[in-house]
Structures are given as structure tokens and as C-alpha cells.
Amino acid sequence: MTSSAVHIWIIVPAYNEAARIARTLQTLLPHYPNVVVIDDGSRDTTRQAAHDAGAWVLRHEVNSGQGAALQTGLDFALRQGAEYLVTFDADGQHDPEDIAKLLALLNKGETDVALGSRFLGQTVDMPFTRKLILKAGVLFTRIVSNIKVTDTHNGLRAFTRSAASKLHLVQDRMAHASEILDQIRQQQLRYVEVPVTIRYTAETLAKGQTSMQAVKIAGELLLGRMIK
Amino acid sequence: MNLFQIVAVTGLLLLLVIEWLRVVRYRISAGGPLFRSLIWLAAIGFILFPDSLTYIARWLGIGVGANLLLYLLTFAFLAVSFMLYARIVHLRRQMTQLVRHLALSQPLPPAPSQKANP
After folding, report:
1. Which residue has better confidence, A190 or A177?
2. pTM to 2 decimal places
3. Counts for chain A of helices (H) and strands (E), in that order
């Protein structure tokens, strides 16, 4: 742990991740002591597992979706005085060593947001259908949000304090990934994509997006834009 | 007037009276009641003069009055569906704000033995 790690907060939204959250936190906490898990109304023991593993825990009493959980985590970390805020999936699909790559770019002051990209980096055991869905998501975002990124639904992102304080996610469910990109463009934040590794397992795939869910997310995003 | 016309027009007139009684009694904005009153009045007109619907349909090039009614109902269904969806989204967002507020007001610190940097 470095002294600067005190100003870094890792935000981990989690829903029914009791079986995986401790393992994920064990890889994070030795390097980053400030980890906050947002238990998004889990029906299992995610909250207790995260607490026992050494993380701060915030509990959504009602499942509100990953977007809401991320916003709660961002608000909490900002209140704690975070200088750098990193979002990280609970299921262990990210490589904790990639965080340093993202933070290094923020630290240089060259960018406000660093976005992980599995398509610039590498994937382990990604099924072909998942790749197709994600590529369709990239194309959709380019058309709808007019922002050119190679990976729209990567949960590993890093923000400076200033950038994070400008985000106000209202898309509660999975449409938040596109909403974050929308707000990066609207707020004219500087962003850069960073190659990262995503590791797929049977567990992560079981919780991932199906084709129908992807269509639903696109619908939610478009309708959500029409409702103020 | 046939029996249907008497019952339907009486019901619609009652709705009109209730709309405007609410405006007077509770001093609410007249925008909504005015919009609905126009719909009730149009309905009364079409019920009392059924041929008028066919006349408008022909004028619009639709031909049959029943088809015009079907199109109008389809548009109304879509509009109402969207309004209800918007209402649900608003309620969900309000609930999310409440859920997030509660979560932020009750943070659970790390277990003391585990905290790496107290």
C-alpha cells in the first residue's frame, strides 16, 4: 500500500455475491484499504461477507440496480474525501492489477476518466455470443451517445474527484453504463481507454446479460431519455 | 334518442359536472379538466350524431367511421401507456433516492480486525 492509496476509493456494487465477494475483496484490500461495497438489496449474506472481509458496506434495502449502487458508492466516497474513485465489479472478473494502470493516467493529470477496455486488452474464456452482444452495445452507443469507445459495458473505470462529482446517474438499472458515457460527453470530461483483462467464469456468465436483456437495456435507455 | 344514447350521454354529462365541481371546490388547475371535458364533449357529440364520425372519416380519407375510432383508440392507448410508464419511472427514481439516502445514512464500517488502514 502506498500513502496515496489512502485517497483512492474502490466502489464495488454487489447483488447476491456472497460466494464471490470475499475473494474479490481479498485481492483488493492489501493494495487499496478504502473499499466500499454497495449491497444492492441482496437476498444472501453479501453484506456480512463484505463486512467480515474488511470493506465498508452500504446497504440498499430494495434492489435498485447497478447504476443506483454506483451512484451511492460515488457519493459515499466523495463524502469520505476520495481524490480518485474506481468502480470494480464484485464477481472477480477484473484484474486488480489493472487499477494501477488506470490510476497512473489520472495521476499524470492527462485525463479525467480512465475506462477499462477488454477489447483493447484481453479476455479469458469469453463466449462468442457475449462478444456479439458487447459489440452491438458499442455500435449502439456510438450511434445514440456519439462517443467512440471500444467497450461500453466494462465495470472497471477510474474517475478524478472532480469528474465523479459531475456524474448524476438516474438510470437505475444496467442502462447506466451508456449513461456514464453520455455524461462524460455532456460534461466534456477528458477520457481515455485503457487495456484491461476480463476473466469469464461460469459464475460471471450466469449473472451476465442475455440478448433479450441487452434489447431491454437499449429500450430503457431511450425511453429514460424521454422522461425527465 | 335510444336507450344507449340516454345512458351514455347522462354518464358523460355527470363526468363533466364532477370535473368542474372539483375545479371550483378544490381550486385546482383547470388545464387537465378542460382537456378531459373536450374529450367528453366530443364523445357526447359522436354518440348523439353517429353519422358525424363517418363524415369526418370520409373527410380525412379513412372512409369508415369505425376505422377512425379504432385509430383514435390506438393513439390514446399508446399515449396512456407512455404516461403510465413515465409515472412508474418517476416513482422508481423517487424510491431509489430514498433507498440511496437510507444507505448513505447508515454506513457499516469494516470489521475492526480486518481494517487495513484505520
Report:
1. A190
2. 0.79
3. 9, 7
